[in-house]
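Appendix C reproduces, verbatim, an entry submitted by the partner laboratory led by Prof. M.T., so that reviewers can inspect both the input and the predicted structure.
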Amino acid sequence: MLEDLRIKNFALIDSAGLDFKNGFTVLSGETGAGKSLLIGALTFLLGGKGGTEQIRSGCQSAQVSATFYLKGLSSPVDPSKINEEDIKTPAQWLYVHGIETEDDRILIRRAVRDTGKSAAWIGDTPVTRADLASFCSFLVDIHGQHEHQSLMRVSEHRKFLDSFAGLDEAVENFTAVYSSLVAKRRQLAEFLSDDKTREQKIDVLTFSVNEIEEAKLKKEEDRELEEEEKRLSSFEKLYEDVDSVCQALDGSEGGSGAVPLLKKIRPVTQHAAVLDKTLENLNTRLESAFYELSDIAAEYSSYKNALVFDPERLAFVQERLTLIYNLKKKYASSVNAPLEEVFKFKSDAEKRLAELNGSENNREALKAEISELEKTVYRQAKDISDRRKSAAQKMSAQVMAILQTLGMKDTRFSVQVAEKSGSELEQKCGPYGMDDIEFLIAANPGNPLQSLAKIASGGELSRVMLALKTVLAETDSVETLVFDEIDTGIGGEVAVSVGQHLKNLAKKCQILCITHLASIAVYADNQLKIAKTVSEGMTNTQVTPVEGEQRVAEIARMLSGDTASPQSLEHAKAMLSKFSGIGEG
């Protein structure tokens, strides 16, 4: 559930802070007041497109944040039940991404700067726009003329039907078996490829493995050789530096070194410490410094005496580095890649060689395994298909019954479940079964059923989604639904029916709806008014809750454009009393 929304410098909105409640909330206002801006800000927050055009004039950035409450969000997650490719809950998503929550609440923030760069956070963790959109898809579904029009994507239709039919787990299990079958078939195809191609692959892989083996590479050898090459090629400069250090420390070659100087003053500091006990600590420290510097001087001297320029070793190191460079060029992602990539290439190549050199027994065993998998895939796909077809009829009937009351009485709606084309099992089945699923609609009498995604208008899509959300209310996990332009082209009794449906749906989830119809707004549990103001030459959109007499006035405005006449106010009070349970007093 969306608890609050904070907007700063977004389009015409200077600053807005909104607290939302559960149930049905309506957003109303005059045409052009900026109702769509609120939805735009929410869409931006949920991972929609972000650009400099969204920043309020004269500002450097726009920011939107929201707090969501999701019961059980902070409960422990069982890692064994998480499939990273098919995460089912927001709690699982947060666990996989290492994001912690408190009190079942999560704060989401997003900002865009005038440089065009945007940033997003879930909790205190920075996330990419793709990750933001992935997580927020569990929280909010927006319907209308916006990016979240899931009905426009035919691939989503299967998910709606499977959810209605309670097939999510069965399809997930099928996908795992199907993926295994595809992998085994690919492996067998390589086994059965013509001998020439197979031998060519073996020759290439064998050459690569032998070339890497003959190099007798050692772990981290490239880095060690680079350090040694650097030392050997800079011998003269290195010797000069070490020699200078030796002279400064031990005073060799007639110099006055630090060690002889400390040795000379040691008796003096010792005598001074006898005369004054307060100098004992300084004497001890100087003595320690003498021994430490003496040891350092000895090690530098030993290092200098061991320094020998070895041109043969330098040539060997450079030759070795050239060999490693060429191996990386062939077998790693780049010449600067870690040597580990060459080792990995060799390991992978050896595995492929083992597969290609597999015995006939392995090949026959693989064929038998594929045969069993094919039977399992077909059996599961057929069962899923039968259940889908049965559920499709029920779903079509329920959705169409609701559409009759939503101003689409002549509309026919059908969930089409068609068998995939092809003659082979692997062609007839896909990762989700043997069916192609699509929603079809005929909005006018006599018209044939056609693709919903191609012919439905924005208002029709919203009402179809409302019908779907109504029949899916028991299984849908998204807790906040936003409807924009749901009242397009409707009025009268149809609008009343839409309002009633939204009210009923709000018993299962949180509903936000933009509308200009009073007959929808009066059903709402809460109402927000959007108004445009001009101050000091700057246009601003403001959002405020309306309650009591203010809400009566807003409903009166929506009814007749008149907020003052007794007739409009009385009509508004009567409607609110009838549909929202608000007293007339």
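The two ends are 32 Å apart (CA to CA). Additional entries are available on request from the coordinating office.
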